[in-house]
Amino acid sequence: MWESPQLRSLLQACKLEPTDDLARLALSDWLKENDLEELGEFVQLQVETDSDTKASDHTWGPKEMRQRRLMRDRFTEWFNLYWRSGVWCVFPHAPEIGEWEGVDFAAVKPIRGMLELHVKAEEVAECVAQIPERAHPWLETLSVTYDDVESLRQLLRGPLIDLFSCVILKVDELSPDELAQWIDRGHICHLRFRGNPSTRHLQALSELTNPRLRQIYLELGEEASSTLAKFLGCPLLSEVRDLELCPPSGDQVLLDLAAHANLSQIESLSFYGDNMGIDGFSTLFAGDLRNLRSLKVADYEAQPGLLSALSCSENLSRLQTLSVDQDRVNQDCAKRLTQSSAFESLKSLDLGDCNFSTDGASTLFSSESLSTLERLVVNGTVRGDVVAEALGASPYLSNLRYLSLCRSPLTAQGLSAIANAESLSNLEDLDLSITGLQGSALLELVRSTTLTKLRFLGMRSIACSGEVWSQLLRSPAAQTLTKLDIQSAPLGDSQVSAFAEAELPALRELITYENGLTDEMVQRLADAPWMSHLTRLVLSDNQVGDEGLRKILSRLTPGVFGDLSLWNTEISASGFEMLLAWPGLREMIDLDNYGNPIEEELATRLGNGMRRGPW
Question: Which residues, listed in sequence order, are joined to residue 509 by a DSSP beta bridge?
Answer without folding.
Answer: 483, 536
